[in-house]
Backbone:
């Protein structure tokens, strides 16, 4: 068997420090589609993505958020079917490629945030499934719930948060990415599916509170807080306790705010006489605990996987009106309090829905060069204007 030694890699980021959180502009992207050579078959690699980092520096973003890179089944995937929480997906280049990528980001002043999935595992290629030969009801065994609490919309593989060793395994995975792999923060996927069991993917009102999941999240945030790095939740329920301090709250630093997205898009897509400026006011001033406690966006991988922003607004592909109204939305993003996030290709009005099977079409950048320049100018204004990153945001 082969043994991998983490300490063999030579890091050169000893002098690195993450940008102040009130100056962050996050760019979310998927390794497998972000940078692919013409004629390349399959997923892009982390080494290939390094070649696009100077582009991100020019754009002005100072943090990237990677869709999950932990080893998953197959080689083409969004990444949300984590099988090995401590391993880097082989098709992306493996652990040394990930280290080279993070090292290169830090060398260019870019922080690296990683999306992690602890609300379910797999369901494919799971080494933990009945790993010791024990299970109940034909289910997952020691690391999973073996009753109705195992059920999620994606697989019946919810970890058993009531077991101390299971919580420790997942928390050790989070610390592995932060410490060993030098990531600067984590975005925790589907927090409401850790806090609750039951309900549906889109309707959480019928879900049942799980105190064991709450315990896991508190222990996770306590461990991450000790590292001094940022912890962001994707809960999407408007639950302000997510970012309240421990022990009463869950201790996360920020959480995704979907309300901004749908209020702004729904306002922009209406006819002029139907628009209500109060909806935009509510979007801009939405309170998830204040300031940096919300991370907000008009596009994310979920939205872009259905339809890109301009088409969501106009209902038509290559719409001049949709592109211009998207630019107005981007202006609101860069002038609002919180931590702004862009999704790959949003900065040049990419038209094609996001798919793990199709590389990003970089030809669209020349088609929408003006949109790119607008994004770049707005990002620079946000980061250099003290009025936009001062007490009203931090």
Residues:
């Amino acid at each position: 068997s082969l043994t991998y030694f983490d300490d063999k890699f030579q890091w050169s980021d000893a002098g690195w420090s993450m940008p102040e959180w009130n100056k962050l502009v996050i760019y979310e992207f998927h390794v497998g589609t972000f940078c692919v050579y013409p004629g390349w078959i399959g997923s892009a690699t982390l080494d290939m993505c390094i070649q696009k980092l100077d582009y991100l520096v020019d754009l002005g973003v100072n943090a990237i958020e990677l869709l999950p890179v932990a080893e998953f089944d197959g080689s083409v995937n969004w990444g949300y079917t984590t099988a090995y929480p401590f391993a880097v997906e082989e098709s992306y280049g493996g652990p040394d490629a990930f280290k080279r990528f993070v090292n290169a980001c830090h060398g260019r002043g870019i922080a690296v945030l990683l999306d992690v999935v602890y609300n379910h595992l797999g369901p494919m290629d799971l080494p933990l499934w009945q790993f010791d030969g024990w299970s109940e009801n034909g289910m997952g065994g020691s690391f999973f719930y073996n009753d109705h609490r195992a059920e999620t919309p994606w697989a019946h593989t919810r970890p058993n948060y009531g077991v101390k060793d299971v919580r420790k395994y997942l928390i050790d995975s989070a610390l592995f990415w932060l410490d060993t792999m030098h990531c600067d923060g984590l975005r925790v996927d589907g927090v409401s599916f850790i806090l609750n069991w039951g309900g549906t993917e889109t309707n959480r009102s019928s879900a049942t509170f799980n105190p064991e999941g709450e315990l896991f999240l508190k222990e996770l945030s306590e461990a991450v807080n000790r590292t001094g790095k940022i912890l962001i939740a994707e809960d999407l329920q408007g639950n302000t306790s997510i970012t309240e301090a421990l022990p009463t709250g869950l201790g996360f630093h920020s959480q995704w705010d979907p309300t901004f997205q749908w209020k702004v898009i729904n306002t922009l897509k209406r006819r002029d006489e139907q628009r209500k400026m109060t909806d935009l006011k509510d979007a801009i001033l939405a309170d998830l605990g204040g300031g940096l406690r919300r991370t907000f966006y008009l596009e994310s991988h979920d939205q872009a996987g259905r339809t890109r922003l301009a088409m969501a607004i106009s209902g038509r592909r290559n719409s001049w009106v949709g592109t211009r109204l998207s630019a107005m939305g981007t202006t609101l993003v860069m002038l609002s309090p919180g931590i702004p996030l862009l999704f790959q290709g949003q900065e040049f009005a990419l038209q094609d829905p996001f798919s793990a099977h199709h590389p990003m079409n970089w030809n669209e950048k020349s088609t929408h060069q003006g949109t790119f320049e607008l994004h770049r100018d707005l990002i620079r204004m946000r980061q250099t204007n003290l009025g936009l990153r001062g007490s009203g945001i931090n």
Summary: The chain has 15 helices and twelve strands. The radius of gyration is 21 Å.
